[in-house]
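Hi both,

Apologies for the delay on this - the queue was longer than expected. I finally got the 1-deoxy-D-xylulose-5-phosphate-bound model through. Below you'll find the protein sequence and the ligand SMILES exactly as submitted, and right after that the C-alpha cells for the full complex including the ligand.
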Amino acid sequence: MTKLSVNINKVATLRNSRGGNNPNLIKMALDAENFGADGITVHPRPDERHIRYKDVYELKPLLTTEFNIEGNSREQTFIDLVLETAPHQVTLVPDVTGQLTSDHGWDTIQHQEYLKATISIFKAAGIRVSIFVDPDPRMVEGAAAVGTDRIELYTEGYARNFPRNPEAAIAPYVEAAEKARELGLGLNAGHDLDLNNLNYFSQQIPWLDEVSIGHALICDALYLGFENTIQLYKRQLAMRSSL
Ligand SMILES: CC(=O)[C@@H](O)[C@H](O)COP(=O)(O)O
Ligand SMILES: NCC(=O)COP(=O)(O)O
C-alpha cells in the first residue's frame, strides 16, 4: 500500500508568521503520526522561511515513522544537516536559491557526475536516496544510472491537467513509473496532490511506494480538521474501484 508522508512545511510557515510557537510544529508532527501518517516530510531551504534547521534536529529523535528530508544538495549546509540527522530518506531537489517552491526535476543526464557523487555520500551513511524528476523516461533511465534508490515524480503537471483530462494528465506518469519499475527503482510522487486527484493517480500506478503531501493537506485541515483530513487522504490511497 502506498505510504502517506505528511509535509509539514506549511505548519512551520504559519508558525513563523508570528515569530512564536503557535502552531507547535513538533506537536503537529507527532499528532500527524498518531492520526495515521506513515511518515513526515520537511523541505528546509536556506532562508528558513518555513522549516528551520533547528526544527529538523528537534524532530528526528521524536518521530516514530519514516522521516524524509527534501532539499537542495548543492548547499553544503543541507548535506551536513542530512548527515547529522540521518533520516530514513533524503530527496534531492534541484531548487535554485530564492525559488518560491520546487518547479522542476533533475536533468539526470546533464548532472550525472554530480548526482553520482552526491548520492554515494548519503548511501554510504545508510540513508535511502530519492531524486526528484519530471515524468520523462529518459530522466528515469538517467536516475537509475546515477545509483539512486528511488525517484520522486514531480506531479505539478498532473495536478494542473487532471481536471480537464485525467487520462492525458496521467499518461506520462504511467510511462515514467513503468520505466522506474522495469529498472528496479522505488517510486515516490509529490507536488500539488490533493483530495481530488490523489485516488486516480494511486489507482493508475498501484506500485507507488509513497506520496508526500503538504500544501493541499494543510489547507484542507483548516476546514476538515487535521485528524479527519489525514484519514481522508489515506482513504484515497486505499480505495480501489473499476475506473
Ligand atoms: C519537492 C517538492 O515537491 C515540493 O513540493 C516541496 O517539498 C513542497 O514544499 P513547499 O510547499 O514548502 O515548497
Ligand atoms: N515532495 C512533495 C511534497 O513534499 C509536498 O508537496 P505539496 O503537497 O506541498 O505540493
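Main takeaway for now: The radius of gyration is 17 Å.

I'll put the files on the shared drive as well.

H.
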